[in-house]
Design a protein that fits this description.
sialyltransferase cstii, chain A; mainly alpha; 19 helices
Length: about 525
């Protein structure tokens, strides 16, 4: 048997197994060729890898390579195992190069399947083409600059491929899904908290908490928008303000119509739409606070002017400020001579009667500035609540209903008990505050982010109220000495002007200029 036939790859197994065995034979032949090229190689004895004539010698590969070949070839059985069909041979030569006999150049010929009765021995004796000689470069070494032409290994058959790992979820897939599910749960909780806060802001939480859904809902007709005229009840209240036939000196300042200053539970929505208050948020409108107003107004028993002023046609009013300029002015008797006396915040009367008088018709306050000591109670006083935030309305609802008062949401501690009866309390229409800020003081509707919003002082809002219910307006206690920081701020207490200069919520300079214009045009009379 020639060397080529002895070292030819076995003719059993799939195409991958045969190609692999043939490649092993090529490597051995290349090794012998390099060894023979060396000087003295002819005298060296050739090692024998097995007994002559044996199966291993005929095949030309070691027992280490024989076992895998037998396993892949199916042992002593005839033909390829089930499923081991060789794929089409790949081209190695030029495109379409075919040898004689229909075999393409460089391709591995596929032996025919063994017929029935033929064993592996006959299959091994089938003829095979001679292997291509290795390409050697300079010095007898294999050239690496270009690929070696010859036999190429075809794609592995299914029986020789490594088993693929079972497909399924990755090892860490379950914890990842748990984290994703936890993320969505937390996001849903955050969204629920945000929506819950918005509902509370719109007072739906209030309604469900206090169980007042059926008793505080307004009629459906009041929920519509685009009101072009006041309801009949509001027209009657406004006409009562114009009973004086004499024209006031400040008529040009008010415009065409006066505003009735107090809100009523039965028609405040339509009145707000008529004045445009439904387009502004607090403290200049009722937008997003309608339910707060509705609940707070449901606690009040009256929304009219005080009884002692209903029969007076032309009212003479005085607005008494809390400025330190009232000290030692002895204006008490003159102040008490007016038809309507308007005071603000917690400016006391007891102990200061000689300078500020005894009587009080209206007292404008908010939760942080209203009296809570019963010693200051006056049965003839009507308290007017200026609403700056929704929390003020909730405070009124709670304090009139005997609920526990929380100080959260206020810039300082509010009154924890109400010394006035519900029939003595009114809620000021936000359009009065809006007119003071936007039309008279010319405040911008939006302040820069770095600047705190400015609001009118209670004293200037009180003067605006007087313009809408009075025929003649005088004022006292609105003069401040800005040159002396240590001068008295109020006619009571020990506060100084330095505290007002540090106030960031009011524009005192703009208010002083506006008051000076009112005095110069004889719209008001200054008593101090």
């Amino acid at each position: 048997m020639s060397r080529t036939e002895a070292e030819a790859p076995p003719a059993f197994g799939c195409a991958w197994c045969r190609a692999r065995a043939a490649a092993a034979g090529d490597r051995r032949r290349r090794g012998r060729g390099r060894a023979e090229a060396l000087p003295g190689a002819a005298s060296r004895p050739r090692p024998q890898k097995g007994p002559p004539g044996g199966s291993r010698g005929e095949r030309g590969f070691s027992p280490r390579e024989e076992a895998p070949a037998r396993r892949r070839g199916g042992g002593g059985g005839g033909g390829d195992p089930a499923g081991c069909r060789a794929p089409p041979p790949s081209r190695v030569g030029g495109p379409g190069a075919v040898r004689e006999g229909g075999v393409k150049e460089g391709a591995v010929p596929v032996p025919p399947a063994a017929p029935a009765g033929r064993g592996a021995g006959e299959l091994l004796a089938s003829p095979r083409p001679p292997a291509a000689a290795p390409l050697l470069g300079r010095g007898g070494k294999r050239s690496r600059s270009r690929p070696q032409p010859g036999r190429q290994l075809p794609r592995r058959a299914a029986c020789c491929r490594r088993p693929e790992p079972p497909r399924g979820p990755p090892a860490g897939g379950l914890p990842v899904m748990k984290r994703i599910l936890l993320f969505f749960i937390l996001a849903a909780a955050v969204m629920y908290g945000i929506l819950h806060g918005n509902l509370w802001r719109n007072n739906l939480y209030w309604i469900s908490f206090y169980g007042q859904t059926s008793s505080v809902r307004a009629p459906p007709s009041y929920e519509t928008s685009g009101v072009t005229q006041l309801p009949p009840t509001a027209v009657e209240r406004r006409n009562a303000l114009d009973s004086c036939v004499l024209k006031p000196a400040f008529e040009s300042l008010l415009g065409v119509d006066k505003i009735y200053p107090f809100l009523c539970a039965n028609d405040f929505i339509r009145v707000a739409e008529f004045h445009g208050s439904d387009k502004f948020e607090l403290p200049y409108g009722i937008k997003r606070a309608e339910q707060f107003f509705r609940l707070a107004l449901s606690r009040l028993q009256n929304c009219g002017l005080s009884n002692e002023n209903d029969s007076i046609a032309c009212r003479r009013c005085v607005v008494v400020g809390n400025g330190g300029v009232l000290r030692n002015k002895t204006l008490g008797e003159k102040i008490d001579s007016y038809d309507v006396i308007i005071r603000m915040n917690n400016g006391p009367v007891i102990g200061y009667e000689e300078d500020v008088g005894r009587r009080t018709t209206f007292r404008l306050s908010y939760p942080e500035s209203i009296f809570s000591d019963p010693i200051h109670y006056d049965p003839n006083t009507t308290v007017v609540l200026i609403v700056f935030k929704p929390r003020d309305l909730k405070w009124l609802w709670e304090i009139l209903g005997g609920q526990k008062i929380s100080a959260k949401g206020f810039w300082k501690k509010p009154a924890l008990n109400m010394i006035y009866k519900s029939s003595q309390i009114r809620i000021l229409d936000p359009s009065i505050t809006r007119k003071t800020a936007y039309e008279w003081l010319r405040f911008p509707t939006r302040f820069p982010r770095k600047e705190k919003p400015k609001h009118p002082t209670t004293g200037l809002i009180a003067i605006t109220l007087a313009f809408h219910i009075c025929h003649e307006v005088h004022m006292a206690g609105f003069k401040y000495d800005f040159t002396d920081r240590n001068s008295s701020l109020h006619y009571y207490g020990n506060d100084t002007m330095s505290q007002m200069m540090q106030n960031e919520y009011h524009n005192i300079d703009a208010e002083q200029k506006f008051l000076k214009k009112l005095i110069d045009k004889n719209f008001v009379v200054n008593l101090t």
